[in-house]
Design brief:
The protein is of the alpha+beta class and 380 residues long. The chain has 13 helices and 13 strands.
């Protein structure tokens, strides 16, 4: 029986190593119910193959018999003789951590022992730990029980909707004020009466390079350009979108008004969860009957019809997220370390992260970050 077999742990290093276990990775992801699409091979391999790492790629693999039952993708670098590990693809704003078969959760203890015995890292920093990610939180607890220090600091709320009904039923149940419901339907009706409005949905391999280019053009003409966040036209992101489409994980809605591309919503879907990732509309349509909100309504309606269980707005606080997202999860920044230097770094990082929570410092940091991003875009 599978459950009676011992855990065999291995390390694979380097970009070329992914080909050794790619099929096993896909099989594990299919079994890992609840895992985010950002732990799929299609997402992570893009960052590895395109060199979007600050360290060397390293994968901790756990097999039970011939089955891959857990995968811990890391990028590791050495600073002052300390190995520091972070999740691959960190910095994009996605849920990251340990991918595990839910029927083999006992492998978490073996992985914690293996991290220590093989000295895989002295410090682990993850800015993207979801409160709902049981596997990664269990691994962190196991490391603490083996002598690691650990600090966890709140980062962002993650508003979401539990969809267990039709769109109309959700509206009736969760938007109680009749005036607000009527206003939404009025805006939707007026938009479709004011122009020739069409929304086309593309799923998985239907998302062609042409579709991704159209999306990039809309984003470039949206409010995201002012923030220095209009990135989808760059070759790396076009490759990332193409890989996720090939893996059947991408979905995009394109709205046209009188034949011209006006808005889009890009989402990633896996295991009954929709992650609402990149929405944008051209600024020339900014005053035209809330087209962003109207497109979002279409996405939610389709999600209800598809039987999506959870609609996740991902990181951050925004009016539209609070309006629709009745439920709310959390994401944390976590740092854990071992040994004298590890404990010292954990204490320093904890103090720094708590300083970032001070409102005016946080605002100042983001203003500087946006200016640097815009400068990089203008010189690219």
């Amino acid at each position: 029986m599978l459950q009676e077999q011992s855990i065999d742990l291995r390390i694979v290093e380097g970009a070329e190593g992914i080909s050794e276990f790619g099929d096993d990775w896909d099989d594990l992801f299919a079994r890992a119910k609840g895992a985010s699409p950002f732990l799929s091979r299609f997402w992570i391999k893009t960052f590895v193959e395109e060199g979007r790492l600050s360290g060397d790629p390293l994968f901790v693999l756990a097999f039970r018999g011939t089955k891959l039952v857990a995968l811990f993708p890391l990028e590791v670098r050495r600073i002052l003789n300390i190995k520091i590990a972070v999740p691959i693809s960190t910095g994009v704003g996605t849920y990251l951590g340990l991918l595990i078969d839910p029927d083999c959760r006992s492998a978490v203890k073996d992985i914690a022992d293996y991290i220590i015995s093989e000295k895989i890292f002295g410090i682990y920093y993850n800015a993207d730990v979801s409160s709902e990610d049981r596997a990664t939180n269990d691994l962190l607890n196991e490391l603490v029980s083996r002598g690691y220090s650990c600090r966890k600091v709140f980062r962002d709320p993650c508003y979401c909707m539990k969809l267990d009904c039709s769109f109309d039923e959700y509206i009736e149940k969760n938007i109680p004020k009749g005036k607000r419901r009527r206003k939404l339907r009025y805006k939707e009706r007026k938009l479709y009466e004011s122009a020739q409005v069409r929304v086309t949905r593309y799923v998985g391999k239907e998302i062609t390079p042409e579709v991704n280019q159209r999306v990039a053009v809309i984003q470039h003409e949206s409010w995201m350009k002012r923030r220095g966040a209009a990135v989808l036209g760059k070759p790396f992101y076009q490759k990332l979108l193409g890989n996720m489409a090939a893996g059947g994980l991408g979905q995009v809605w394109l709205m046209t008004i009188d034949g011209e591309d006006a808005a889009f919503a890009y989402s990633f879907v896996a295991h009954g969860k929709l992650h609402y990732f990149w929405p944008a509309f051209k600024l020339k349509y900014e005053s035209q009957l809330s087209i962003g909100q109207m497109l979002l309504m279409r996405v939610i309606r389709d999600a209800c019809e598809d039987g999506i269980q959870l609609f996740d707005f991902l990181y951050g606080d925004a009016d539209y997220k609070r309006f629709w997202g009745i439920d709310c999860n959390e994401v944390f920044r976590v740092v854990t370390g071992r040994g004298f230097m590890g404990h010292l770094v954990v204490m320093f990082c904890d103090a720094f992260l708590r300083l970032k929570q001070i409102t005016w410092l946080h605002s100042f940091y983001h203003r500087i970050k946006m200016r640097l991003r815009r400068f990089k875009q203008s010189t690219a």
